[in-house]
Structure prediction request, 199 residues.
Amino acid sequence: MILNHIWGLYAHPRDEWHSIEQRHESLTYSLTHILLVALIPSICGFYSASQIGWRIGVGDPVRLTSDSALLLAVAMYFALVAGVFALAYLAKWMAQTFGSNPSYIQTLELAAYTSTPLFMVGFASLYPLLWFVMLVGLAGVAYSVYLLYVGVPILMHIPEERGFIYASSLVTVGLVLLVSILAITAILWGSGFGPMYSS
Prediction:
């Protein structure tokens, strides 16, 4: 089953990381997991932006046209998938500094499963109040970081002391990737690719 690790990562993360480490599924398996889970924030974001509308303080909800929301959802989907692959590549590159030589599939598994709680935050956008989505988002980020710290020593075969430094480095790299995506988004919006609001 494609998404069989999700429940385990929430219920018993350490045991689930050991299970992932023992199996090491194929590239296709990890790719399918990423492609499916990345649909959650894209589809939920599209629906909330075009049908429900976002409440940012007092006033009427802000809605986007369906075409504009669809364009943003597709762009978000590809940015999320590309971000996971970039994080996996950087995790593989950085691992050698910490005395580990994982395969790309191992680092892709690490990136895919640690990013899963962030992608699940997409469900929160179905109740599109900014403060609520931000609170759920903070919880998702915190749990993703926790999964990373637990999973690195198991999946990368790095001692816990060095694994902590390695995981902290990956968190920093992940933040840099996020800021890069936000900067590109701001540049595109400033160049005339911003959203169209429905009346």
Summary: Residues 57 and 94 are 42 Å apart (CA to CA). The mean pLDDT is 87.
